[in-house]
Amino acid sequence: MATAKTKSQKKRADEAPEKAAIYVNGNLMGFHPDGASLAARLREKRRMNELNYEVNVFHNERTKEVFINSDGGRVRNPYVVVEAGKSRLTPEIMSKVESGALSWEHLVKMGVIEYLDAEEEENALIALKEEDITEAHTHFEVLPSTIFGVTSSVLPYPEHNSAPRITMACSMAKQSLGLYAVNFNHRFDTRSYIMYYPQRPIVSTDLYKSLRLDKKAAGQNFVVAITTYKGYNMGDGTVVNRNAIDRGLGRAMMLKTYSTEERLYPGGQKDKIEVPTPDVVGYRGEEAYKHLDDDGIVYPESQLSGKEVLVGKTSPPRFLEEISVFGVVEEKKRESSLSLKSGEKGCVDSVVVTEAPSGNRLVKIKVRSPKVPEVGDKFASRHGQKGVIGLLLKQEDMPFTKDGITPDLILNPHAIPSRMTAGHLLETLGGKAGALEGKLMDGTAFSGNTEEDYATVLKAKGFDEYGEEWLYDGITGQKMQVKLFMGPVYYQRLHHLVSNKMHVRSRGPVQLLTLQPTEGRAREGGLRFGEMERDCLIGYGASMLIRERLLEESDKTIQLVCNKCGMFAYHDYVKNKDMCPLCDSEDVSSIEMSYAFKLLLGEIRSMFIFPRIILKDKA
To answer: For residues 472 and 397, what is the distance between their CA atoms, to the nearest angstrom?
Structure first.
């Protein structure tokens, strides 16, 4: 009898629905027999303003779990609520919004607009436009362009470009030089750039205006012609009008802050900011300190160049007592001044003397240097079309239209088809229409001005409806054989500047361990001749050049080697003869080799392996 009862109980338990686990902000709070209905009720309460609008509910049918989230840090997006295939944003409500009777907050409290987080979006079917709504839909987008993030919403016509180009355009927008802060002249940022004449784009988006980015613009409207020019804009190169640069096109200013403080050392000694005297160890010569005032700090508006001193500073000696030549004990101060790095130059913009958190005197100096566009500097449009200047051409040599308009930049036509950046072409057309009409154009995704709108404007103004123009060669004056596509495009100057990257070295410092040249521009390092470069020279059979690069110009050393046992020998200065430390032989030869090889043999010996260098005469 007991066995029969157990079987029936099991049967009922199998038929009963599995309870859903309820999580609040990631913590398990209990179980509920019907997770779907609980999630639906909570959402209804939120729409009736009985539950805070920041609460989100997600029901996972597969794992039978309900997640209720109200914690911070969630990205949430607003949507219009759809019920039974009809939008809650009725024409009556819309008319009240337009008249100002209802605000956005009212719509949220009324349950017309709802914020969903990434989890709750999994339970929603969202239409892009109101016309697309079906019975199955739960929401529709407030604006179709809100499917994009903040950065991509600022770009015009992203729906006309391929996805990788949008990604590139987003990352390059972050590298553009512009007006990053209005109070830049009072700030002491480590390194910053300010554009001299930033402009707002002719073609912009709704979000660009909402974020008020026109107040902190980061680019200029360039007149761009799409054509080749004698090979100077091959690949991603561009030809730029030199006269336009002289008039301030793309010109920026770099502000760099240098700082130093009077550090306190154990034993009560401390640094001192002053003009170093000739008796200081490491004195740089009178010329290096010529811009310093009596207090050891540079004058504002001083013009400085490589390795000139900004703040004179002396430090106590590393060892408390040093014995001089005559046996007298004396304390020698060390030179530890703050100076410009080699290859840098600029004008002292401002100087501030203050107190560091440690209580010591702190000096900050801001140096400004103008950055005029030059060959090799990088520019990019807002469609991922990046390129460097390949030629600066005088205006009189640039192609020109019948109205005398010359392009600021010539872009290669090969940059367009394979990259599928139709948005770039559309912006060119929109920029031209906007310039002729005298108004700003809308390039918002899915809802901006169309190609037809621009064609109508251009036709009405007597221009070619597709933005093409006849151009004349600036050198010969002859009319070009084909019409060229030309119009204003918003271009950004990126902070990859030739003047900050240019690096050359003849002789300089070497590393202590390997005796090879140091690495990096900041350390006056050598230029790496890598394995692939070596392979090229092997392919050419240029053995003498390999020898020069990898030995003569790197870490060449002459080592003494024992002819008997193959061990490294040494020169005994007392006996004035070469000796082998292993077999005491005096039969020693001097061998030319790379110091890194000598180091390798030493490391092998440290592992109790004895490598021998067997010598024999050249045949």
So the answer is: 10
Instruction: Determine contact, residues 322/345, Cβ cutoff 8 Å.
Output: no
CA distance 59 to 356: 54
| Size of the chain, expressed as the number of residues it contains | 619
Q: Is 532 left (phi over 0), alpha (psi -120 to 50) or beta?
A: alpha
Domains, the chain: 20-142 (3.90.1070.20), 158-183+192-251+376-493 (2.40.270.10), 253-371 (2.40.50.150), 503-552 (3.90.1800.10), 556-606 (3.90.1800.10)
First to last CA, the chain: 107
Q: Identify whether the C-beta of residue 157 lies closer than 8 Å to the C-beta of residue 169.
A: no
Per-residue b/e over 15-49, b at no fewer than 16 CB within 10 Å? eeeeebbbbeeeeeeeebeebeebbeebbeebbee
- Where residue 282 falls (left for φ over 0; alpha for ψ -120 to 50; beta otherwise) is left
Q: What gap in Å lies between CA 43 and CA 65, rounded to an integer?
A: 16
**Minimal CA–CA distance to 90: which of 105, 107, 78, 104?**
107
Q: What is the mean pLDDT of residues 390-398?
A: 96
How much is the average pLDDT of 405-434?
A: 96
Catalytic, out of 236, 397, 453, 464: 236
Q: Are 311 and 363 in contact (CB under 8 A)?
A: yes
Answer yes or no: 236 catalytic. yes
Question: What pLDDT digit, counting tens, does each position of 157-182 carry?
Answer: 999 999 999 999 999 999 999 999 99
Alpha helices, H only, 16-119 = 35-47, 91-99, 104-109
Q: Give residue-wise pLDDT tens across range 435-494.
A: 999 999 999 999 999 999 999 999 999 999 999 999 999 999 999 999 999 999 999 999
The SS3 of residue 149 is coil
- Cβ count near 285 (within 10 Å): 8
d(CA 47, CA 89): 13
Burial of 162 (0-12, 13-18, 19+ CB in 10 A): middle
- CA count, 13 A, side-chain hemisphere, 214: 14
d(CA 113, CA 115): 7
Give the CA radius of gyration of the chain.
36
pLDDT of residue 180: 92
Dump pLDDT digits (tens) for 340-353.
988 889 999 999 99
DSSP 224-290: EEES--TTTT-TTEEEEEHHHHHTTTT-EEEEEEEEEE--B-TTS-B-EESPPPTTSBT---GGGGT
Instruction: Supply the pTM of this predicted model.
Output: 0.83
> Tokens in use for 317?
């000696």
